[in-house]
Structure formats: structure tokens, C-alpha cells
């Protein structure tokens, strides 16, 4: 996995094998966004902390 500063406010993460985007991490926040489509098989994952107006 690789990472980079995509801006002064956000860090991005990607696969060093294929280059696909895996996550974004807003600096100064206590959460990250994960690219759920990057997983090969279904997992028992659940959305947490999603606000109704952010969907």
C-alpha cells in the first residue's frame, strides 16, 4: 500500500500493486473513507456514523 498527500487537508491511499484507490483520510478528522469495492469477496462490514444528509 502506498500513500500520498492529495491536498493540504486529505491523505490518499492506494494499492502499490495495481494503483487502485483504497482510502482517503481527511487530516484533523477521526475517520477515514474506505473504497469498499476494492475488496474481492464480501465481508461483514457495516457503515457507521453515516449522517442522513451525507448519503
Task: Report the end-to-end length measured between terminal Cα atoms.
Answer: 27 Å
Beta-strand share of residues: 25-35%
**How does the helix and strand content classify structurally?**
mainly beta
Shape: flat
Mean pLDDT: 78
Task: Give the key terms.
55 residues; mainly beta; four-stranded antiparallel beta sheet
Structure description:
This protein is mainly β. The protein has one domain. The chain contains no helices and four strands. A four-stranded antiparallel sheet has the order 1-2-3-4, with no helix packed on it. A hairpin with a 4-residue loop joins strand 1 and strand 2.
Short description:
By secondary structure, the chain is mainly beta. It has strands at 2-5, 10-14, 21-26, 33-34. The chain is flat and about 35 Å long.
Record the SSE blueprint:
Elements: E1 2-5, E2 10-14, E3 21-26, E4 33-34
Antiparallel strand pairs: 1-2, 2-3, 3-4
Amino acid at each position: 500500500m502506498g500513500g500520498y498527500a492529495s491536498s493540504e487537508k486529505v491523505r490518499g491511499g492506494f494499492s502499490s500493486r495495481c494503483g487502485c484507490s483504497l482510502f482517503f483520510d481527511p487530516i484533523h478528522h477521526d475517520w477515514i473513507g474506505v473504497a469498499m469495492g476494492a475488496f474481492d469477496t464480501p465481508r461483514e462490514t457495516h457503515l457507521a456514523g453515516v449522517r442522513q444528509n451525507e448519503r
